[in-house]
Amino acid sequence: MEEERQTLEELLRVMREHDLDRIKVKVGEATYELVRRQTAAPNPNGAVPVPLATPQAGGSAALAPPPNVKRVLAPLTGVFYRQPSPDAEPFVSEGDRVEVDQVLCVLEAMKLFNEIRSDYAGTVVRVLPGNGELVSQGEELFWIQP
Question: CB-based contacts of 37: which residues, under 8 Å, 6+ apart?
Fold first, then answer.
């Protein structure tokens, strides 16, 4: 219980530091999603944990990658951004053809923006995190079909 409280406090700190309205992160088997609540009364935490549904048997099949898909994983923990600036077009979208070494997204960690490049040529079949979400090292970012 103490470990969960520390995790939530750290996520709240990241939300405040990066002025995020929403954050979703998976830590081990637990998934945390915090959303800034707009209320008349001030909320001292600035966000509330939102419980997520646990995948039911058979329901997780929709989240499984298609056969022979290549998975692009986050090399570090950071905030996921689909485009280089808020008013720019995304680096890639589902259905786009990508080449080896093409920039797919950026991850912001410790105020540094790290370009994440593709190790694969193919078609982007899924972009998993939402823009502005905190992702953990090893978390899936993209599915690319060769």
Answer: 43, 47, 48
- As beta bridge partners, residue 31 has 26
pLDDT in tens, 25-62: 777 777 777 776 544 444 444 444 443 433 333 333 34
Give 97 or 58, the one with higher predicted confidence.
97
Q: How far apart are CA 79 and CA 91, in angstroms?
A: 15
Q: CATH 2.40.50.100 in the chain, residues?
A: 65-145
Residue 130: what are its φ and ψ, rounded to 5°?
-85, 155
DSSP lists the bridge partners of residue 80 as 107
With a CB cutoff of 8 Å and minimum separation 6, the contacts of 142 are 71, 72, 92, 104, 105, 118, 124, 126, 127, 128
The CATH number assigned to the domain with range 65-145 reads 2.40.50.100
Query: Helix, strand, coil % (nearest 5) of the chain?
Result: 15, 35, 50
